[in-house]
């Protein structure tokens, strides 16, 4: 008799995540199908996690990102994603592709490499969403919210509106940049988020995208889809889906939205 040990005998996936976040690993492990293991490398650099070199023909990977890539290269992974929405948003035109090229050179051939920006784009297109309602964490400041909206507009989408989550009275007097430092990342509640999205989602939106890999939300994706009658995507869900499909893994994952059934 054996019990489940989460061994990645079907696929092992590497994820670069923010150094002090717990949400990405928790959500990935909740959604990962049997036989798939998730392995995190933590990055403490500020966004973007790679800086353009002169002439912007290539990027220099942050030290943490490069170190994680060297470690991942020895782990026989099937796919790797840069799980950081903010880096994709502020990196600029071509940043996602440049980071993929830089990491691919370190990780070796035959390994699927992507970013959260590319993952969410692929998920939006697969779900036939052209006018997403974008939902962003409370810790995204005005500039980052604007960068997120511009990111999708510049890539062929037409956001029908956006919402920056209101975390409630306890946090409301703090500026966005101070919320994580005061512990909000570990005190996230999904019920108020569900209520705010359901109330604010405009009729003109053909789907919802909840951005931010540190934003706890996959527990409410299915309920939101049932109530809004539209596909609801999240950053971590999109990255898992993109990595699974690009690694040649089919099959539906129940309980976390329609995307993981495509």
Structural class: alpha/beta
Main sheet: which strands, in order across? Answer: 2-1-5-6
| Straight-line N-to-C gap | 34 Å
Compute the number of strand runs.
10
Q: In which range does the helix fraction lie?
A: 25-40%
The poorly predicted ranges are none
Mean pLDDT: 97
Please give the count of helices: 11
Please state the overall shape, judged from the principal axes of the Cα atoms.
Answer: globular
Helix-strand string: EHEEEHEHHEHEHEHHHEHEH
The main β sheet shows up as: 4 strands, parallel
Question: Hey, roughly how much beta strand do the residues contain?
Answer: 15-25%
Q: Evaluate the radius of gyration.
A: 18 Å
Structure in words:
The chain is α/β, with parallel strands linked by helices and 262 residues long. It is built from eleven helices and ten strands. It has a four-stranded parallel sheet. Strands 8-7-9-10 form a four-stranded parallel sheet, with helices on both faces. α3 crosses α6 and α5 (116-126) crosses α11. The radius of gyration is 18 Å and the shape is globular. The two termini are 34 Å apart.
Topology (elements, then pairings):
Blueprint: E1 11-18, H1 23-31, E2 36-43, E3 50-52, E4 59-61, H2 63-72, E5 79-82, H3 85-91, H4 95-107, E6 112-115, H5 116-126, E7 132-136, H6 142-153, E8 161-164, H7 169-172, H8 176-179, H9 190-200, E9 207-210, H10 221-228, E10 232-234, H11 235-246
Helix pairs in contact: 3-6, 5-11
List the defining traits of the structure above.
single chain, alpha/beta, four-stranded parallel β-sheet
């Amino acid at each position: 008799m054996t019990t489940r040990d989460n061994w990645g005998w079907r696929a092992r996936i590497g994820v670069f995540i923010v150094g002090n976040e717990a949400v990405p690993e928790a959500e990935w492990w909740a959604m990962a199908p049997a036989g798939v293991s998730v392995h995190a490398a933590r990055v403490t650099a500020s966004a973007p996690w790679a800086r353009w070199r002169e002439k912007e023909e290539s990027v220099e990977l942050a030290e943490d990102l490069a170190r994680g890539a060297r470690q991942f290269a020895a782990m026989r992974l099937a796919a790797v994603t840069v799980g950081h929405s903010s880096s994709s948003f502020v990196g600029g035109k071509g940043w996602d592709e440049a980071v993929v090229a830089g990491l691919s050179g370190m990780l070796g051939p035959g390994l699927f490499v992507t970013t959260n920006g590319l993952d969410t784009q692929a998920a939006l297109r697969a779900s036939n969403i052209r006018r997403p309602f974008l939902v962003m964490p409370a810790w995204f400041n005005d500039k980052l919210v604007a960068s997120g909206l511009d990111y999708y507009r510049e890539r062929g989408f037409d956001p029908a509106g956006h919402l920056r989550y209101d975390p409630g009275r306890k946090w409301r007097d703090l500026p966005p940049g101070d919320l994580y430092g005061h512990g909000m990342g570990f005190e996230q509640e999904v019920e108020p988020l569900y209520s705010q999205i359901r109330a604010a989602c405009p009729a003109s939106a053909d789907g919802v995208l909840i951005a931010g890999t540190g934003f706890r939300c996959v527990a409410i994706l299915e309920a939101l889809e049932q109530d809004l009658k539209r596909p609801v995507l999240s950053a971590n869900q999109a990255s898992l889906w993109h990595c699974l499909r690009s690694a040649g893994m089919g099959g539906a994952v129940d309980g976390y939205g329609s995307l993981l059934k495509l």
